[in-house]
């Protein structure tokens, strides 16, 4: 089925060789024209509101045609018109600008021969103006299409919708750049409408496009047979086969285009020739077959070893001196997405398989867009990097959407889920709406594919992806997925402190008993690896219960017990091989003052006996719960909050902190009486022993250490490691150089600053110094 589909669709699209489509659109950099309107004068561009009002005063209500009648009905058409005979447009380059628009329109519509643009009307749409769906009549001999040029004016809304044979495009011809003009052309038999102008004035020139030659039949391309064939192919692909796996063997299909397009040029409205014809056919077929269709850049990056074939000299080689050897690594991605409506969806890079190319082997005979060789260096042989890149039409059935998006990882699938939820909410948030069902399917897929690698999970928490996913589930009211995500990936370690606000909100949507069970499972599964995050979660959950009055915090007893049981204690001895892993994980495992404050605050509400147990644990492991780094700041936090200040564990921690501060405050604080400095040098080498003797000497303020650089560097490292009260300067006279060590009062000055801090902390805790 997969190979047959890729071959069949490529064959079908390859037969659609007539260029052109039912509409064309583009922009030109406009040279300022002189537009004079009878009864108004010369217009300023962008259009001024006062001139817009003057135009309306000189205009008439635009009528519309019904059969042989011409009627005015503001329920059908509300806009103002000025006949082209009353409008004069001149300027040094206006004729060239208009010719450029006509040429682009001819190319886009697939028209050969001479085409003239005859000014028909000047239309003014004020706020609230619109024109419902209609067809233009042929207003002049040879007229086959209409050209709409929207001039610079401040407005919002007024988009142009064009329909033909089940296809529809929505064009916003408003431009913020005053020197740029957007235009659209469409065949006269196409249905089109102008949506209401939300604010401001929309000023448009309407031209009749008139054909004078007969080189090619006029009218939009007719691909009915190919269209029906494409619809059947796509529908059969998207329909799950009876008895087959739910996982499709071919998730998406990629049809590379003939012409080259840069990332800046890529867009449905800029496709050329057969590419435009193939896209035009596939747009309608994809819509009818319920498929997603995009235009994108397809890239194949390869690298591997290369062979030096000779040539070159003294390290100078050209590309012809190498040949590509074997490919060792490759990366295949689709990105730079464009939608038929002109938008730029932020789908991110999606991987693809070569089997998804249509036709199979579409990249086999391509010349690389970039090829770079690297010469052999050291133990590394010569290598190469090459890039193949093509614009392509990318299509998949909407039934495959969840699978396709999940291939791009969380950075693709989670934002898309948020967009589905937003659209569902804006549409009225109907629980039975298809959008909600689709969002649920995607959410389930995201959960099933949640990454298992620890570093990816940590990144998802750090960059807010996990929290965003939880918020989307909450907004969707998808209780089943909230439950499954909490008991699955989160309880298994896909968890960080930044997830907690969204997690608590999500769990609050569940039945209280179930939410409490899940909090226990999450804490039990993460307390060893993420005690800081677990303490924060427990505190948030307890506070929510108290603030909302939805129950008793005591129901969190099992979760609290699991956390207390897993509190970090004595550090295990680590081998050097474990050092990197410890460094990577230490952010979540090392106790912090916030963790201690969260823990004791929550436990006092949940189970005071557990608060006592936790406090005793802190006292048993002073090397892990340092008094200055952890316990003192935690005491300050708890004492500052009225809800926790009088709790027993907070009082106990306050007493511990007060005693510590008072002991240190009463210690003598005087500057050194002589040049003796603390001499606790840990290294026992000969040079460091001399350093130690110098520090202990009460008469020597300086030591000139003249030695080789490696010895000077060692002394400098010892001074830094052991916090010696020394200033170091290297004197680069003579050989070897001299490291001059000068004693300072760093320890004393540090204690002065510490004393000031201790007194401030003592006051914050409501204590007074001992006399």
Describe the structure.
This protein is α+β, with helices and mostly antiparallel strands. Among the domains are: 21-211, Jelly Rolls; 227-401, no CATH class; 686-744, no CATH class. It is 40% helix and 22% strand. The strands form seven sheets. It has a seven-stranded antiparallel sheet with strand order 1-16-12-19-10-8-4, covered by helices on one side. Strands 20, 21, 22, 23, 24 and 25 form a six-stranded antiparallel sheet that branches. Strands 7-11-17-14-15 form a five-stranded antiparallel sheet. Helix 12 crosses helix 14 (531-548), helix 13 runs antiparallel to helix 14 and helix 17 crosses helix 19. Mean pLDDT is 88; it is low at 575-586.
Layout of helices and strands:
Layout: H1 2-15, E1 23-29, E2 34-37, E3 41-42, H2 49-58, E4 60-61, E5 64-66, E6 69-71, E7 77-78, E8 80-83, E9 87-90, H3 94-109, E10 115-125, E11 130-134, E12 143-150, E13 155-157, E14 160-164, E15 167-171, E16 180-187, E17 191-194, E18 197-200, E19 202-211, H4 224-238, E20 253-256, H5 273-288, E21 291-308, E22 322-338, E23 350-351, E24 370-374, E25 383-397, H6 401-407, H7 410-426, H8 434-448, H9 454-462, H10 465-476, H11 479-490, H12 500-507, H13 512-526, H14 531-548, H15 557-565, H16 579-589, H17 593-606, H18 608-620, H19 627-640, H20 648-665, H21 686-696, E26 702-706, H22 709-721, E27 726-731, E28 738-743, H23 746-764
Antiparallel strand pairs: 1-16, 2-3, 2-9, 4-8, 5-6, 7-11, 8-10, 10-19, 11-17, 12-16, 12-19, 13-18, 14-15, 14-17, 20-25, 21-22, 21-25, 22-23, 24-25, 26-28, 27-28
């Amino acid at each position: 089925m997969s190979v047959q589909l890729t071959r069949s669709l490529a064959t079908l699209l390859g037969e659609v060789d007539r260029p052109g489509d039912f509409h064309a659109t583009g922009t030109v950099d406009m040279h300022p024209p002189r537009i004079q309107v009878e009864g108004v004068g010369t217009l300023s561009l962008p259009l001024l509101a006062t001139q817009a009002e003057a135009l309306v005063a000189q205009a008439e209500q635009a009528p519309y045609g019904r059969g042989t009648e011409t009627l005015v009905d503001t329920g059908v058409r509300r806009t103002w018109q000025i006949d082209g005979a009353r409008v004069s447009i001149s300027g040094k380059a206006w004729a060239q600008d208009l010719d450029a628009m006509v040429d682009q329109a001819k190319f886009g519509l697939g028209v050969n021969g001479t085409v003239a643009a005859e000014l028909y009307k000047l239309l003014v749409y004020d706020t609230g103006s619109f024109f419902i769906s209609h067809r233009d009549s042929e207003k002049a001999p040879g007229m086959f299409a209409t050209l709409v040029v929207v001039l610079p004016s401040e407005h919002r809304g007024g988009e142009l919708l064009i329909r033909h044979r089940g296809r529809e495009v929505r064009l916003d011809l408003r431009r913020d750049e005053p020197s740029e003009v957007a235009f659209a052309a469409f065949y006269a038999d196409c249905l089109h409408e102008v949506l209401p102008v939300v604010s401001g004035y929309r000023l448009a020139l309407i031209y009749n496009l008139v054909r004078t030659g007969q080189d090619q039949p006029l009218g939009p391309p007719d691909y009915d047979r190919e269209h029906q064939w494409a619809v059947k192919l796509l529908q059969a692909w998207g329909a799950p086969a009876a008895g087959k796996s739910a996982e499709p063997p071919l998730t998406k299909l990629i049809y590379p285009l003939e012409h080259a397009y840069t990332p800046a040029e890529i867009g449905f409205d800029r496709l050329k020739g057969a590419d435009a014809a193939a896209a035009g056919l596939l747009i309608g077929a994809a819509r009818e077959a319920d498929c997603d269709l995009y235009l994108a850049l397809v890239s194949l990056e390869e690298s591997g070893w290369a062979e030096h074939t000779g040539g070159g000299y003294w390290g100078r080689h050209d590309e012809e001196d190498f040949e590509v050897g074997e490919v060792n690594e490759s990366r295949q991605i689709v990105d730079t997405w464009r939608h038929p409506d002109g938008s730029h969806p932020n789908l991110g890079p999606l991987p693809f398989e070569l089997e998804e190319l249509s036709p199979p082997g579409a990249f086999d005979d391509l010349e690389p867009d970039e090829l770079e060789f690297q010469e052999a260096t050291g133990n590394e042989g010569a290598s190469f990097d090459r890039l193949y890149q093509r614009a392509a039409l990318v299509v998949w059935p909407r039934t495959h959407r969840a699978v396709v998006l999940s291939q791009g990882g969380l950075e693709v699938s989670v934002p898309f889920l948020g967009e589905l939820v937003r659209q569902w909410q804006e549409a009225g948030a109907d629980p039975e709406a298809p959008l909600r069902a689709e969002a649920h399917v995607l959410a389930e897929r995201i959960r099933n594919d949640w990454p298992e690698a620890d570093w990816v999970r940590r990144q998802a928490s750090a960059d807010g992806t996990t929290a965003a996913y939880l918020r989307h589930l909450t907004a969707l009211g998808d209780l089943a997925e909230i439950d499954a995500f909490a008991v699955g990936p989160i309880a298994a370690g896909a968890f960080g402190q930044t997830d907690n606000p969204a997690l608590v909100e999500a769990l609050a949507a569940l039945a209280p008993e179930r939410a409490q069970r899940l909090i226990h499972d999450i804490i039990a599964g993460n307390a060893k690896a993420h005690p800081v995050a677990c303490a924060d979660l427990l505190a948030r959950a307890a506070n929510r219960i108290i603030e909302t009055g939805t129950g008793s915090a005591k129901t969190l007893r099992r979760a609290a017990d699991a956390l207390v049981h897993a509190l970090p204690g004595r550090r295990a001895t680590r081998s050097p091989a474990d050092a990197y892993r410890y460094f990577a994980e230490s952010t979540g495992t090392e106790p912090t003052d916030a963790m201690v404050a969260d823990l004791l605050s929550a436990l006092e509400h949940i189970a005071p006996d557990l608060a006592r147990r936790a406090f005793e644990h802190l006292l048993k492991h002073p090397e892990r719960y340092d008094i200055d780094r952890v316990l003192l700041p935690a005491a300050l936090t708890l004492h500052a909050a009225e809800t926790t200040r009088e709790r027993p564990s907070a009082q106990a921690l306050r007493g511990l902190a007060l005693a510590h501060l008072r002991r240190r405050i009463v210690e003598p604080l005087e500057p050194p009486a002589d040049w003796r400095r603390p001499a606790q040098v840990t290294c026992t080498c000969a040079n460091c022993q001399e350093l130690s003797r110098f520090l202990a000497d009460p008469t020597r303020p300086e030591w000139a250490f003249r030695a080789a650089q490696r010895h000077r560097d060692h002394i400098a490292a010892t001074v830094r490691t052991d916090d010696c009260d020394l200033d170091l300067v290297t004197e680069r006279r003579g050989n070897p150089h001299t490291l001059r060590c000068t004693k300072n009062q760093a320890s004393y000055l540090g204690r002065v600053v510490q004393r000031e801090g201790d007194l401030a902390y003592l006051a914050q805790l409501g204590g007074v110094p001992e006399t």
